[in-house]
Every structure is written in structure tokens, then in C-alpha cells.
Amino acid sequence: MNKKHNTTEDLSLSQLTELTGLTPELIRAWERRYGFPTPRRTEGGHRRYNPEEVEALHRAALLVRSGYRARDAVGQAR
User: Fold this and answer.
1) Residue 44 — left, alpha, or beta (φ > 0 → left; ψ -120 to 50 → alpha)?
2) Please, which residues have CB within 8 angstroms of residue 39's CB and are 6 or more apart in sequence?
């Protein structure tokens, strides 16, 4: 949890949750509510997150943990 991402590879949702500590349900909810993040999809429909999205989600998670409302954290982290 909350590990540093030091690769240029796209990550799966499970890898992203391990790095950020956010739940898959929360990430999907932010995607629906705020249009963030915007992962690409594999042919099978699986989400893949690029390094920029990983860093932005990590920033948003830190802001939420420090007291920001989710909408504001997402806006600042983009």
C-alpha cells in the first residue's frame, strides 16, 4: 500500500489499488462521478492506468486523507 510507482508500464486496477490504498469501488466511483481517472481499456474491457494517472490518483488519495472533499481532491490532483 502507498508504494512508489517507478515504471513506465500501465497498471491494472488491482496494481493501482495496491499502490494507492484506494479501493476498486472508490476508483470506479470517481471515474463515474468526476470523469477521473480515464483509463484506457484492453480488448477484454479491463482498465489500464498510465503512470500519470497513477501519480494523480496517489495525489488525490493523499489530499482526501488530509481532509479534502473527494471532489476538491480530484480537481487539484488532475
Assistant:
1) alpha
2) 13, 31, 47, 48, 49, 50, 53
Evaluate whether 2 touches 21 at the Cβ level (below 8 Å).
yes
C-alpha cell at 77: 490532483
Residue 73 CA to residue 75 CA, distance in Å, equals 5
- Rg, the chain, Cα only: 12
Q: What do you get for the CA distance between the two ends of the chain, in Å? A: 21
Does pTM top 0.85 for this prediction?
A: no
Sign of the alpha-carbon dihedral angle for 3, 58, 15, 48: negative
pLDDT tens digits, one per residue of 35-72: 999 999 999 999 999 999 999 999 999 999 999 999 99
**Cell numbers found for residue 2:** 502507498
